[in-house]
């Protein structure tokens, strides 16, 4: 990682142009390092974004990758790349798939304006840069571009971003706006696009793409702080015109207009005596919506940045952390990454484009999209119920339910962005997100409509082998791939439906889904102790290798080692099938201690962060370290958590062992650093592990605070000797959601040797469906 001085950009030239020059007292945002995760396989971006903002204004270091190679550039920026191609306005944070990278802008200086990016070896408008000139913090990014000699700064509001470019004195200033550029680009991805230069000097445009999400439409409006001295709108493609979506067009109202599939704009500003500011707003609805969103983001660069920084300080201030400097930076950055998605999707006037490709109007809430639910139902959304509960209920839950309402397929989002469904991953994991919020007492949505949407998703027989699952109680592998994983994930989702339905008094629904929640047993082979895929005739598929990982096989991005633990609603039932506590603990130890030296997982992109057969870089393993609590050995959980945190998280660009997956890897660390984790969202319990920070205080929206204190925490004192809740001994190895929301203090006394008695009693263990009282 670059030195602190380099990261803060403290050179004379940078101080003159950076809003960070006048430092005030330490603020929550000061502890965050957005470069964490931008190297290795973290797939995060360092650019400017507001909390949950529609715009993620960030540098793209390579958009010309081949399809297989695009995996490493899923966020547009990769720390070890030597050049920047430009700055685009939409990015995923830590996704395992690339897309977006919309509306790329690049400054050019001098008399010649290249219209192609070129390559790192032979740059066009692409430019070399040095990390020593980079600065990134929440809501702000800056870098010096060696080629044009331009200092580039970025900030962002809710639906717009602002660029500021300081051009060299005496050299002509230009911008290239490239609508051809896109992450995960390939021939034919850009279906149609348009550029319109309006009489008021605003450049508007749109494009429709066929990428990860088909038929995605995005509109933009761009305003400049200096008048244009010249321009060119260029179509670099002469193919037959697209006869589908044509865009609104401006006709005679436009000073210039261009429609096509490979559009660029060259914008000339002459020689400037002050930095050029470029304000850009997005819309999923139309160009008029983008213009209105542009007007809603008032003020110049410094004003927008001041609001963004204030918004970040408020959002990050929900968890005040006291810890050693490296750990504080890692946890604060994890909290930051947890607050990037699901992102705003509706316009300032409430209009939004739904999964039916029609425009709707949100009634009293802000529509969200970017739902990576297979990942985020586990810890990301449960974290938001604590630190962003109002947005969780009014924005997230209502967005999910309205998306189902307008979905042509009639089910809740699976993996959705920009209002479009990708059908990536498995399960119907919007269901536990809604149920978890409801069970925690969060309201602000129509619960009956939500439950109806959940049931409709769970009964959608055409989706992912659900028809077979409903008929047989399991998904047969000869009818549907990844059948073992689908069976247990459906069963967990069904349990959350039953929980919410019972709490609402809808006992008929609860009874039906309680029965389905036990379906995990139908794919568990009690004779061998593994979750396995079964065929239509009831037999388990052979040959069987619990270490095998192959896409489209019995499991989803994993193998039997990871998925044999996935029945979070009934871990006690699993322990009985495994032969009791002792055998369960032995199998958990075998998983973590497994010798992988003879295994090759290079063909599986998402298999990273291995500790034996525990794979922290992918989500199916995320709850497994906490499984020791269910077997009466919390001290073993404490050991494994230390092993995971120390090996999987660092305060460096390669500080995430796997894709952050829209905040899930980060939310895992936030919870774990506090000392507890939501193994089974919907249970209203958090399983206690051990803290990794000296003190943390949750600022609750009801005006109360919940403090976590770790007395004696050190590298040597990594075990929990005792726990108190509000000065009373806590003998159970869980803390309940209601305990946190009531406010108070959870105090850990740490020791160098384990307490093997605490949490071992059967009555002290976490919730399980089959032993619930």
Automatic annotation (TrEMBL):
Signal peptide feature range: 1-22
InterPro entries cross-referenced by the UniProt entry: 6-hairpin_glycosidase_sf, GH-type_carb-bd, GH92_a_mannosidase_put, GH92_N, Glyco_hydro_92, PNGase
Keywords, sorted A to Z: Glycosidase, Hydrolase, Signal
Glycosyl hydrolase family domain ranges (all copies): 290-751
Membrane-crossing residue ranges in chain numbering: none
EC code(s) of this entry: 3.2.1.-
Domain Glycosyl hydrolase family 92 N-terminal: 32-283
Enzyme class: hydrolase
Pfam families recorded: Glyco_hydro_92, Glyco_hydro_92N
GO MF annotation, one: hydrolase activity, acting on glycosyl bonds
PANTHER family cross-referenced by the UniProt entry: PEPTIDE N-GLYCANASE PNGASE -RELATED, SECRETED PROTEIN
Protein name: GH92 family glycosyl hydrolase
High-level lineage: Bacteria, Pseudomonadati, Pseudomonadota, Alphaproteobacteria, Sphingomonadales
